[in-house]
Every structure is written in structure tokens, then in C-alpha cells.
Specification:
The chain has about 400 residues and is of the alpha+beta class. It is about 55% helix and about 15% strand. The strands form three sheets. The chain has a four-stranded mixed sheet, with helices on both faces. Strands 2-3-7-6 form a four-stranded antiparallel sheet, with no helix packed on it. A two-stranded antiparallel sheet has the order 9-10. It binds flavin-adenine dinucleotide (FAD).
């Protein structure tokens, strides 16, 4: 067993931290207020190799391991606690990897170099108005094969990150649709759906109450014709690719929560050391320092779960040491613990700050709003994490939501 970091990992963390603290952290409030990630920040992230770094070098990425990508996610969460920018990072890093792994060479050449250069957005669209947790039961979007070998797509996706960003930059959303009705989870296929300037697509935006710098919305596909080259991976294997992408994304979510919570805790610790009540610093009261110790421990717990999952994912991809379901279980545990840990940590710090904690002078409120998106649903609701974990513990015959 080895809990240490390699020299490469240490240097990468140092480089990302320095970059993120210098360039991103001072602009967190601006990102939240304007509802935009400044284009020059996206450009400097591209220069730093932080846009879809998991994509192969051939397409402008770095072929980065899951662990290295997780380190960057933690540092971005620490710097930008509204979590808008970390979300942009994690969506492209995790789903970019899946895109690179399964899409055709022609499609990768068209999309990925632009994504890694910050000139296109790559998103993920599985959720629909009828539900996100039950993909098999709720998915109405479909693609029908045409005589010329292409596909015709119809249906609506909803609560999708990065709609405005893709409309501005171009790129595509990896969109999961039904291609073989009646075949359950073996009847789904992913397609690269471009939203920008697409006459067969109409988009909507919803107003979120957190992570304001990245948009959420939906899109409707009305007889959208797509060539077969836009199919990502094998037909009817899309559900499996979706589960693989969720696993990766959940690990990165865990890391952004760890970074964001640690940044918040640090702010709180500095405050309780200097703020006095009843003639002495707040920190001298065990009513303050003990919850601080609890939160510090919770952060470390979430970090261990997250990096264990990252390490397992790397082992799976490099050496086939684990099965995907083992990594999915570890990722679900990280996603179950980290967002709640981050919410509780930031909420606790808000208490220490007193009235100041309820103002926008401190970034804590941005973090509280941001992390809540993860426990409500982004990349899988908490009960779905519990379902994955219970299935491993107790067995699918007892825990399947559709019954045995
Ligand atoms: C900010 C944000 C960004 C998002 N971005 C994207 C994106 O980019 N792409 C994308 O595809 N989706 C995205 N989503 C959607 C997300 O994936 C879904 O919210 C999530 O999958 C849950 O689906 P739902 O919201 O339809 O809730 P539902 O599936 O309707 O579930 C509602 C509640 O019921 C619970 N529940 C469901 N079934 C069971 C059960 N059997 N037992 C017990 N409890 C159950 C769930 O845990 C949840 O709490 C985003 C969501 C948010 C909040």
C-alpha cells in the first residue's frame, strides 16, 4: 500500500494550484455575478492544458490519467468555490475521455482539437423532462436508422449543463437516445449533437440558483438528421458508455467538493482565530474548534474515497485490475459523501462568520449554492448512489428499483 504522491503528481498539483489561485480565484465572484466564465480564462485554461486533458495528445489533450485529472479538479474547486468553472472542467475531462475512447476517428478529428483549445464545448445529455435517474424508463428521445445509413433524431433533453456555452462556441453534446425500443438498457446509442446554428434544434435555458457561470437548459430535436459518423461507439451500447462516463465524472465531482470545502474551512479557521467574542478568539471555544476538527476529518474521508476511486479507475484502464462495477461502486461512495461533506463544512463555516456569513462579502454562500447542485442531482442523485452501493452490499435481486 502506498498513500504517497509521485513526483509528477506533486508537480502537477503545484502548477495547477499556482495557476488557479493566481488567475481563477480572484475572479470567482465575477463569474458568479456575471453568469459567465470570462473567455480569457478559458483561453488560459487551454494553454495550461486544463481543457479535456484526458483526451489523447493527438487531439490536443495530454492523455492524462484519472488521478492527475482528479488532482486538477481538486485545485480548481479550491480556487473557484461557486464551482461553475470546475463543472466546465469536469464535464469536458470525463466525457471527453469517453468521446475519445469510443467515437470514430473522423468525429474526434472534427471536435476534440477544438475542445482542448477552448474553441468548442463538449457536453453530456442523458436527462429528459420525464426524469434523469431512470434512464431506461424515462428516455423518450429516439434515433431511427435511415435508408442512406444516417439517423433521424427526435425528442427533448432537459437540465443539461453548457447549453449557452455550446451555442456560443460550437461543439456538441453527447446525447443518449433510444435506438432499439423494447431492448431495455441494451437499446441506447450516443450521438454527437451540435446545437449551434442547427435548424432542427431549439434550445431553452433555466435559471439555476448556484454555479451561475455555467448555464443549464435543454434542447429539442425535431427530425434532426445526423450522419452515421456522429454515432459515438457501437449502436445499442450507449447505456454502458454512459455508466462509464458517470463513474469518471463522479470521481471528479468528489475532488471539486474536497477542494471547495477545504478552501471554505481555511477561510473559517483564519476568521475564528482573529474574531473575538467574550474577550477571546472564537477558536478558543471547543464549541467552535471541535466542529472544525470534525469537518477537517470529513474532508480527509471524502478525499480518501475520491482518490481511491481515481486510483482504481487508472488501474482498470492501465492494467484491467478491476471491473468497471468495482470502480463505479468506489465512485458512488465518493459522490455520496463528498457533496454532503462540502455542504456541511461550508454551512458550519457560515455559522462561525456570524452575520458576515450571510453576506456576499464572503464567498461561502457561492460554495453552498454550488455544491448543492451535486447532491440534488448533477451526474446522479444521491439515492442513485445509495442504490449502486446497496446493490453491491445486498444484491440486485433485493435492491433493484423495479423489483426482483
Ligand atoms: C445543476 C445541474 C446540472 C445538470 N447537468 C446535466 C447535464 O449536463 N446532463 C445531463 O444529462 N443531466 C444533467 N443534470 C440532470 C441530472 O443528471 C439529474 O438531475 C439526475 O439524474 C436526477 O434526475 P431528475 O432530476 O430527473 O430526478 P428524478 O430522477 O426525478 O429523481 C427525483 C428524486 O427521486 C429520487 N429517486 C429516484 N428514483 C428513486 C428510487 N427508486 N428510490 C429512491 N429515490 C429515488 C432521486 O434520488 C431524486 O432525489 C443536471 C442537474 C443539475 C441539478
Amino acid at each position: 500500500m502506498d498513500f504517497g504522491w509521485t513526483q509528477e503528481q506533486t508537480m502537477w498539483r503545484r502548477a495547477v494550484r499556482e495557476f488557479a489561485q493566481k488567475k481563477i480565484a480572484p475572479r470567482s465572484r465575477e463569474i458568479d455575478t456575471t453568469g459567465r466564465i470570462p473567455p480569457e480564462l478559458v483561453k488560459s485554461m487551454a494553454e495550461m492544458g486544463l481543457l479535456a486533458p484526458t483526451v489523447s495528445e493527438e487531439y490536443g489533450g495530454q492523455g492524462m490519467s484519472v488521478t492527475m485529472a482528479t488532482i486538477a479538479a481538486e485545485e480548481l474547486g479550491r480556487a473557484e468555490i461557486s464551482l461553475a468553472l470546475p463543472v466546465m472542467y469536469l464535464v469536458m475531462a470525463s466525457w471527453g475521455y469517453i468521446f475519445d475512447r469510443y467515437a470514430s476517428r473522423e468525429l474526434k478529428q472534427e471536435i476534440l482539437p477544438k475542445v482542448t483549445a477552448g474553441k468548442a464545448f463538449l457536453g453530456i445529455a442523458t436527462t429528459e423532462p420525464g426524469g434523469g435517474s431512470d434512464i431506461e424508463g424515462a428516455t423518450r428521445c429516439k434515433a431511427e436508422r435511415q435508408a442512406d445509413g444516417g439517423w433521424l433524431l427526435n425528442g427533448e433533453k432537459m437540465y443539461i449543463s453548457g447549453i449557452r456555452e455550446e451555442l456560443a462556441l460550437g461543439g456538441c453534446h453527447m446525447t443518449l437516445v433510444r435506438t432499439e425500443p423494447g431492448s431495455g438498457h441494451r437499446g441506447f446509442t450516443f450521438f454527437a449533437v451540435p446545437l449551434k446554428d442547427n435548424p432542427h434544434v431549439t434550445t431553452t435555458l433555466v435559471e439555476d440558483w448556484g454555479r451561475q457561470g455555467i448555464s443549464t437548459g435543454g434542447f429539442n430535436m425535431d427530425n434532426l438528421p445526423l450522419p452515421d459518423v456522429n454515432r459515438i461507439g457501437e449502436a445499442n451500447r450507449g447505456f454502458y458508455y454512459a455508466m462509464e462516463g458517470f463513474t469518471f465524472a463522479r470521481i471528479l465531482i468528489g475532488a471539486t467538493c474536497v477542494g471547495c470545502a477545504e478552501a471554505g474551512l481555511q477561510m473559517g479557521v483564519e476568521y475564528i482565530k482573529q474574531r473575538k467574542a467574550f474577550g477571546r478568539p472564537l477558536a478558543t471555544n471547543q464549541g467552535i474548534s471541535f466542529p472544525a476538527a470534525e469537518r477537517f476529518t470529513d474532508i480527509e474521508t471524502a478525499r480518501l474515497l475520491t482518490y481511491k476511486a481515481a486510483w482504481m479507475a487508472d488501474e482498470l484502464y492501465a492494467n484491467n485490475t478491476f471491473k468497471h462495477k468495482d470502480v463505479a461502486l468506489a465512485a458512488a461512495m465518493a459522490k455520496l459523501r463528498a457533496p454532503i461533506m462540502a455542504f456541511e463544512t461550508l454551512n458550519e463555516v457560515a455559522n462561525w462568520l456570524g452575520a458576515m456569513g450571510y453576506t456576499k462579502e464572503y464567498p461561502i454562500e457561492m460554495g453552498i449554492r454550488g455544491v448543492r447542485s451535486y447532491s440534488i442531482g448533477a451526474e446522479g442523485a444521491m439515492n442513485i448512489m445509495r442504490m449502486i452501493i446497496a446493490r453491491e452490499l445486498i444484491g440486485g435481486e433485493y435492491t433493484s428499483p423495479r423489483g426482483a
